[in-house]
Every structure is written in C-alpha cells, then in structure tokens.
Design a protein that fits this description.
Layout: E1 5-8, E2 13-16, E3 24-29, H1 40-58, E4 62-69, H2 85-93, H3 97-114, E5 122-125, H4 130-142, E6 146-149, E7 152-155, H5 171-176, E8 192-197, H6 200-203, E9 230-232, H7 234-246, E10 250-256, H8 260-275, E11 280-286, E12 289-291, E13 294-295, H9 306-311, H10 316-324, E14 332-333, H11 336-354, H12 364-382, H13 387-399, H14 404-418, H15 432-446, H16 450-462, E15 466-470, E16 473-477
Parallel strand pairs: 3-4, 3-10, 4-5, 10-11, 12-14
Antiparallel strand pairs: 1-2, 6-7, 7-8, 8-9, 12-13, 15-16
Helix pairs in contact: 2-3, 4-7, 4-8, 7-8, 10-11, 12-13, 12-14, 13-14, 15-16
This protein binds adenosine monophosphate (AMP) and zinc ion.
The site of adenosine monophosphate (AMP) has 17 residues, from helix 1 and strand 10.
C-alpha cells in the first residue's frame, strides 16, 4: 500500500490517509443535478474525483465508489430559496421533470465515457430513495432537531454546537446578515429544508388569486410524507444515500469548493445529528474552472459543454489533459489557447508513444533510471494528487535516454492514473501511396529541389497526413 497524503478540508491540512477498514475505501462523490448539460466546469470536478479514485486504486485500495444523481430538490438558491432546478428547466423545455432527468443522466454518462472517467460502483438516484430520506428526517424529528414552517420541515442548526465546522463558518456573521434572508419563518439563517411541501396553491387552485407572481406549476415529482405532500431537500438526499451504501461513518466525500459552505456543511449537520457519530473522515474539494477570472457556471451565462468542444473538433481527452495541467486545488482559467496547447501536447504525447520501438538490450543503468522515474511519479501522485508534476516528469522520461521498451512500460503504468488511453495508442497504418509520396519528397530534398519537395508536402497534407523531418529520417503522422 502506497502512503497517501491528501488535503482534508475538515482539518485544512495535508494528512496521511488512514482508511477505516484496512485496504478499503468508501468514496462518495456528489453527482450531477440533471436539469441540463453539465458544463466543463462541472466536469473538471468529476475529473479530479476520477483521478482521486484511480490514485486510491493504484495505491492498493479496493475502492467502493458511490455517485448520486440529483433528480429532485436542488433549488435555484442554495439556501432553500427559489424553485426546484428540475421543475424550472422542465417548464422551460416543455418536458416533464422525469423526462429531463432521464435525458441529462444519459448525457452525463456519455460525457463521462468520452472523458475516460471510471463509472462508479453504485449509481443512486434521489427519487429512488425517498423512503430512506423520510426515515432519516423522522430520526431527526424524534431527536428534536427539526421544526415545521408553512412550507416544510427545517433543520435547526442552533441545536448543533459545531455546526459549520467544515467551512469554519462565522455563525455570528451569518446571524448579522439574517435580515437579507428571504425566508422569514426560519429560526436561524443557516437552517435548511429537509422536506419541502409542494406549493399548496397548486393543490388548492381556489386560493390561487392570493399569491401574485408565484409559479403555479403542478410538480411532476412529489410524494406523500408524514408532513404532507412534497419533496426532499437536496442535502438530505446525499446524507441518506451515502450512509445507506457506505455506512454511518465512511472514508471520503468530495465535490466542488462551492459545496463546502452549504451542501456539505448541512450534510454533516444532519448526518451527525442523526447518528451521533462522525459522518466522514476526509473531505476533498476541487477548485473552480474559471473563465475571464469569473467562475464558469450556468447562471453566469458562460457555460461551455463537452458537446460544444467536440463540435469544434477537439478531442474530449484534450480537455482531460488540460485539467491535468493544474493542481485540483488551484483555479484553472479556461482559454481556447490553453485548450489548443493541451490538444497539441496530447497529440505529441501519442506520437512519442507511437514511436517507441526497442533500440538496444536493456541495461542495468536503464533499469535504475526507470525505477527513479517510477519513484518520482509515485511521489507526485501520492502528494495530494500532484498531476502537473506527474505530467512534467512523464515528458522528461519520454525525452530521456531510457531504453524505449522501458519507456513504454512506464507510460502504461502512468496512464492508469492519467486515463488518456496511452496504452491503446497504435502505430499508424500508412497507406502505400502516402509512403511513396514521402519517399519522393525525401529524394527531392536530397537533390535540393525545394519547390518540388514543398509541393509534395502540400499534397501529402491535402490527403490528411503530415510529414516531419527528424534526425532519423522522415516521420509521417495524421
Ligand atoms: P451541480 O450539477 O450543480 O450539482 O454541480 C456539479 C458539480 O460541479 C459540483 O460538485 C460543483 O461543485 C461543481 N462545479 C460547479 N461549477 C464549477 C466550476 N466552475 N468549476 C469546477 N466545478 C464546478
Ligand atoms: Zn451531495
């Protein structure tokens, strides 16, 4: 087992990872809210989690990875204001929330495949776990952590002395700011909904005229509960499902940094209030993808999708490569230039791998050098997933004097983490006519007939190939 040092948001330090059960890791990653195409910012977070999972497995752990699908309850405002994102989008797209969930779950899974993300061991949908969520709220109710308002059941955060420990929340500051809160029935500004009642006006249309401007849309998704017909809050979903599949205390929980202050803080509060045990040992969060110094987000109006990148002829793996060039705890600024650079680097990497042919018998010096690269790689990835370092040393390795067979072996091992499909890179099948053109060009060059050699190069390019001159002669690539 390789020792892993990982940054834990809970302690704000890099810690030596120690699993609850030897050799095993329970990992929960907050999944997508399936109301629209995920944007490439969302995908950056899932890519970071994919790397984490690969590093855990590489280090020797058996990982049980659970990812949820949020198909109900995520409101447009994080603090229980606004509308259910699913219902709002369903109305806009003239579909039912159920159809929308089906569609965007498929899109998300397709994106994952394109980006070579490993599928979780367990997928769980919030709408399939209403029973578990109601049961958890009932436990909280019995223990006196809840209260009811006219629109639902709320968690009383003042009942937990360590509420906000993950985010180091300034509770006093939040109380000060309470006046700006919209929901005036809440006892504390940090209180959050466990169960929301469906809009009663929708079920009692005779009272409709009393509320101006409210959205009188019949919800597609609602369930009976001891508190009335409604739907669960977003936070309770993740608590109920993660504990169902991974136990009341489990190893790791991840998401983007925006989840620290509200979603994960509230997951901890309700889970620990219900069980009296520590909920999660290690919390890890991925930083934002930004664009023009602002967060990429759907509401920011600057969201780009993977389908959009593909339409511009980028390889999805170029985006995966791009995310590897920044540490997961650093912001990554997206520019088209950086994506172009990533695409070129990936193409070059593939070409380097393609060109690896045995050169001479492997010597003891080769073996020593290979071992040194291996150790440096292991050190980088186990040091809080330092992928930029791992990538840089892969390039050093490929450009070094190491015997190509060993280079190939190392690339194969390293790609278990990178996930760039480098082990599947195959030699080009070059059509004979292209080879002949390249040989003709070589002959023209020897005769210093530059005009002819240039003309043949252009012809080769028009057929979709590129010819490059190296010390060892010409190389053809697509
Ligand atoms: P959502 O589908 O809205 O629940 O978000 C899915 C994931 O994407 C969450 O883990 C968010 O924290 C994360 N996320 C949202 N915006 C960004 C961004 N600009 N960069 C990286 N991650 C993000
Ligand atoms: Zn979650």
């Amino acid at each position: 087992m390789l020792p892993l040092h990982l940054y834990n948001t809970l302690s704000r330090t890099k810690e030596l990872f120690q699993p609850l059960k030897p050799g095993k890791v329970g990992l929960y990653t907050c999944g997508p809210t399936v109301y629209s195409d995920p944007h490439i910012g969302n995908l950056r977070t899932y890519l970071f989690e994919d790397i984490l999972r690969r590093v855990l497995a590489y280090a020797g752990y058996k990982v049980k990875h659970v990812m949820n699908i949020t198909d109900v309850g995520h409101l447009t405002g994080d603090r229980d204001m606004g509308e259910d994102k699913m219902q709002k989008s369903a109305r806009e797209q003239r579909k039912t929330a159920w159809d929308l969930a089906k569609l965007y779950t498929l899109v998300f899974k397709e994106n994952m495949k394109d980006l070579h993300m490993l599928a979780p061991d367990i997928w769980c949908k919030a709408t399939d776990h209403i029973k578990e969520q109601v049961a958890l709220i009932q436990i909280l109710e019995k223990k006196g952590f809840t209260y009811q308002t006219s629109d639902g059941v709320y968690f009383d955060t003042a009942r937990l002395p360590d509420y906000g420990k993950l985010a180091h929340l300034n509770i006093e500051g939040l109380r000060e700011g309470a006046r700006v809160e919209v929901n005036d029935e809440k006892k504390n500004p940090t209180d959050f909904a466990l169960w929301k009642l469906s809009n009663p006006l929708v079920r009692h249309p005779e009272r409709t005229e009393r509320v101006e401007g409210s959205t009188l849309q019949k919800r597609d998704m609602e369930w009976p509960s001891p508190w009335g017909v409604g739907f669960p809050g977003w936070h309770i979903e993740c608590s109920a499902m993660s504990m169902k599949y991974l136990g009341e205390t489990f190893d790791m929980h991840c998401g983007g940094v925006d989840h620290i202050a509200v979603h994960h803080t509230n997951e901890i509060a309700q889970s620990e209030a219900a069980t009296g045990k520590q909920f999660v040992k290690y919390w890890m969060h991925g930083e934002f993808l930004i664009i023009n110094e602002g967060r990429m987000g759907k509401s920011e109006g600057n969201a780009m999708t993977l389908v959009g990148l593909k339409a511009k002829a980028y390889d999805p793996l170029a985006y995966r490569y791009l995310t590897l060039t920044a540490h997961y705890r650093q912001k990554l600024n997206f520019t088209w230039e950086s994506l172009d650079a990533a695409q070129n680097a990936l193409n070059n990497l593939r070409d380097h791998v393609r060109a690896l042919k045995p050169e001479h018998p492997v010597t003891a010096t080769d073996r020593k050098l290979a071992q040194n690269f291996q150790e440096r790689f292991d050190k980088a990835i186990t040091d809080d997933l330092n992928m930029p370092e791992a990538l840089a040393l892969t390039w050093d390795m490929l450009k070094s004097e190491l015997e190509p067979r060993l280079k190939k072996q190392l690339v194969k091992t390293f790609d278990k983490i990178f996930g760039l499909g480098l082990d599947k890179v195959k030699a080009y099948k070059i059509p004979p006519e292209i080879k002949k053109l390249a040989r003709d060009r070589e002959a023209a060059r020897k005769k210093k007939d530059w005009a002819k050699s240039d003309e043949i190069r252009k012809h080769i390019e028009s057929l979709g190939w590129k010819v490059e001159d190296t010390e060892k002669g010409f190389v053809l690539r697509k």
